[in-house]
Specification:
two-stranded antiparallel ribbon, alpha/beta, 8 helices, 5 strands, 3-stranded parallel beta sheet
């Protein structure tokens, strides 16, 4: 009974106003206020899509309303400038300021809790130590490898061409060339936009893109052709997709143009 109280009160007010309105037409204005509430309550009672609205006519809609504005409430009233994920308001503001060529630094300290456990930073050394460039690279390939690769400790992780754009992939590869580090192609295969002088890690996923036959099976001849290219320094086999459950990793149909296909 309590869950229908608001609906029943509105219904009772409407009924009373109808009766009184027969003799006092001036009270019909209440229909403007309570009429939509009654119609909403009736609809809530007969619809079968939402159990909350069916069990709590009218007032159950507040649950969906507050759920709708929950991100804004968090952003403006609950989160601090450093709480938001994956990008905090502080970091987002910094990006905006730099994009507008405005000053992005704040004087007199920081908003971050630098003494909390887990906070990391780099201090200047009073006695600088010369770093051997060899310590910043890792040799990949065991004693049986005829072409080991001297990899940087910083590289570009796998992002398929289809999920980015030709300009983005080209920019990443040019950056890899300038920085002398490797560029992982992602499971979409090696596209011409990957080949601007940067070292490549050719990722082969379960779709065999770049080394597949028309029937979808593995093509050794195509694999050999791509693997022998000078800019392909390593080959990564992707055995499964475990980091993106649900709809993760699915390329929207609108992005599968003739070139990507």
């Amino acid at each position: 009974m309590a869950r229908n109280l608001f609906f029943l009160i509105s219904f009772a007010i409407i009924t009373a106003n109808i009766i009184v309105g027969i003799y006092q037409p001036a009270v019909w204005w209440s229909m403007v206020l309570f009429g939509p509430i009654i119609l909403l309550g009736i609809y809530d009672c007969i619809q079968i899509r939402h159990a909350i609205r069916r069990n709590f006519p009218v007032i159950g809609n507040f649950r969906y309303f507050f759920e709708e504005i929950r991100p804004e409430i968090n952003q403006y009233f609950i989160e601090s400038n450093t709480d938001g994920t994956p990008f905090s308001r502080e970091r987002r503001s910094m990006v905006y300021q730099r994009a507008k060529d405005a000053l992005d630094t704040l004087p007199f300290g920081t908003q971050k809790k630098v003494y909390n456990e887990g906070y990391e930073w780099v201090n200047h050394s009073l006695n600088p130590v010369k770093v051997d460039p060899k310590d910043l690279r890792v040799v990949i390939g065991g004693p049986d490898c005829t072409q080991p690769y001297n990899a940087s400790i910083f590289n570009i992780s796998a992002m398929s061409y289809g999920s980015l754009s030709k300009n983005a992939v080209k920019a990443l590869n040019l950056g890899a060339k300038i920085g002398h580090f490797a560029h992982n192609t992602g499971e979409g295969g090696v596209a011409p936009h990957h080949q601007h002088g940067g070292d490549l890690i050719w990722q082969i996923g379960t779709g065999y893109f770049g080394c597949r036959k028309p029937d979808g099976t593995f093509d050794p001849a195509s694999f050999a052709t791509v693997a022998k290219q000078d800019d392909v320094k390593m080959i990564e086999l992707k055995l499964s997709q475990g980091a993106k459950p649900g709809h993760g990793g699915i390329l929207p149909a609108s992005k599968v143009d003739a070139e990507v296909a």
